């Protein structure tokens, strides 16, 4: 096993866990809205992707790094403490930044699946994993969030 691939996969799992936690938090903050419905689907998809990623690692004989994964969860929780323009409530800036970070994470995940399929050669060596479907799901997640991200950005950032 390539040591660089092993490190890369452990790092990427930690990032995936952080994005999963962010998606769950954002979903909870937006319940009862069209955005909340979109986040419900995206959050479930991200959680499935993390599990698929763990399966890939198991298939390759790579154990997750609990320290990296734990650090990612802690970092996401610490990110909640960032001032958002309101002392006690969810702000338009919080909504926009969560969506912005989720979109960045999903774009990164789409690139990850492509990298694993093509550059690491896992598409050929692990044919039981449908990397094309994983890439398509990431694209669908981006399409589901993009109109909400744009709307949240205008609401939070537009000059008044």
Describe what you observe in this structure:
By secondary structure, the protein is mainly alpha-helical. It has 6 helices and no strands. It has helices spanning 3-29, 34-59, 66-79, 92-119, 122-125, 131-157. Helix 1 runs antiparallel to helix 2 (34-59) and helix 2 packs antiparallel against helix 6 (131-157). The longest helix has 28 residues, at 92-119. The protein is globular, with a radius of gyration of 17 Å. The chain starts with a helix and ends with a helix. The model has no long low-confidence stretch (mean pLDDT 93).
Q: Report the sheet-strand fraction.
A: under 5%
Mean pLDDT: 93
Shape: globular
Helix-and-strand structural type: mainly alpha
- Helix count, DSSP H or I runs of 4 or more residues: 6
Helix content: over 70%
List how many beta strands DSSP finds.
0
Poorly predicted parts: none
Order of helices and strands: HHHHHH
Main sheet properties:
none
Distance between the termini: 56 Å
Rg measurement, Å: 17 Å
Short description:
The protein is mainly alpha-helical and 160 residues long. 79% of the residues lie in helices and 0% in strands.
Blueprint of the fold:
Layout: H1 3-29, H2 34-59, H3 66-79, H4 92-119, H5 122-125, H6 131-157
Helix pairs in contact: 1-2, 1-3, 1-4, 2-6, 4-6
């Amino acid at each position: 096993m390539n040591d660089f691939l092993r490190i890369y996969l452990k790092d990427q799992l930690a990032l995936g866990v952080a994005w999963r936690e962010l998606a769950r938090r954002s979903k909870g903050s937006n319940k009862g809205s069209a955005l909340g419905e979109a986040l419900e689907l995206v959050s479930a998809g991200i959680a499935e992707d993390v599990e698929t990623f763990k399966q890939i690692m198991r298939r390759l004989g790579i154990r997750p790094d609990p320290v990296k994964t734990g650090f990612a969860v802690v970092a996401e929780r610490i990110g909640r403490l960032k001032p958002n323009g309101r002392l006690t409530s969810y702000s338009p800036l919080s909504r926009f930044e969560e969506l912005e970070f989720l979109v960045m994470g999903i774009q990164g995940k789409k690139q990850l699946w492509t990298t694993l399929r093509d550059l690491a050669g896992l598409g050929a060596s692990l044919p039981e994993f449908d990397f094309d479907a994983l890439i398509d799901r990431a694209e669908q997640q981006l399409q589901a969030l993009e109109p909400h991200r744009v709307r949240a950005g205008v609401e939070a950032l537009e000059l008044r």
